[in-house]
């Protein structure tokens, strides 16, 4: 009898763990409609491309507040659950590479990839995402 009870407890524990992990995965992943042409424009976030490049690549731009406002407005128009994916699509399709030498271009691109997820944070646009708060994972994790 003790062996059956311990097996039942083990099976129930495993089932609860699967339910919890499934719910956690569902909360952190973007819905299937978060693709270019549906919830994300085909050439998404053109204002964010300039803002991210300006903030990431040591470019002094007098219009930084305007670029930020444009970027935040464009992100706000995208459903919350698609914002992180939109930033990823932006970096995959429309990166703005600054610098004349290849080494500078690579550094600029890497800096943009690190900064882009931060655009939704409290310090920047303060926008809720698929994670339920102003947060995106690193772009390769979205």
TrEMBL record:
Pfam families: Tryp_alpha_amyl (PF00234). SMART domains: AAI (SM00499). Keywords: Secreted, Signal. InterPro entries: Allergen/soft/tryp_amyl_inhib, Bifun_inhib/LTP/seed_sf, Bifunc_inhib/LTP/seed_store. The keyword Transmembrane does not apply. Residues 1-25 form the signal peptide. It is found in: Secreted. GO terms for cellular component: extracellular region. One of its GO terms (molecular function) is serine-type endopeptidase inhibitor activity. Its main location: secreted. Residues 57-136 form the Bifunctional inhibitor/plant lipid transfer protein/seed storage helical domain. It comes from the Eukaryota. The keyword tRNA processing does not apply. PANTHER family: TRYPSIN/FACTOR XIIA INHIBITOR-RELATED, TRYPSIN_FACTOR XIIA INHIBITOR. This is Bifunctional inhibitor/plant lipid transfer protein/seed storage helical domain-containing protein. It comes from Miscanthus lutarioriparius.
């Amino acid at each position: 009898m003790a062996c059956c009870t311990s097996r039942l407890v083990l099976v129930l524990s495993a089932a609860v763990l699967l339910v919890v992990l499934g719910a956690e995965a569902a909360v952190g992943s973007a819905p299937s409609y978060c693709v270019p042409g549906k919830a994300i424009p085909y050439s998404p976030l053109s204002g964010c491309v300039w803002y991210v490049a300006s903030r990431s690549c040591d470019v002094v731009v007098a219009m930084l507040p305007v670029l930020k406002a444009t970027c935040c407005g464009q992100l706000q128009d995208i459903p919350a659950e698609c914002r992180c994916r939109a930033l990823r699509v932006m970096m995959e399709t429309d990166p703005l590479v600054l610098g004349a030498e290849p080494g500078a271009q690579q550094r600029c691109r890497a800096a943009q990839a690190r900064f882009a997820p931060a655009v939704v944070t409290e310090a920047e646009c303060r926008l809720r995402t698929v994670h339920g708060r102003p947060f995106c994972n690193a772009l390769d994790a979205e």
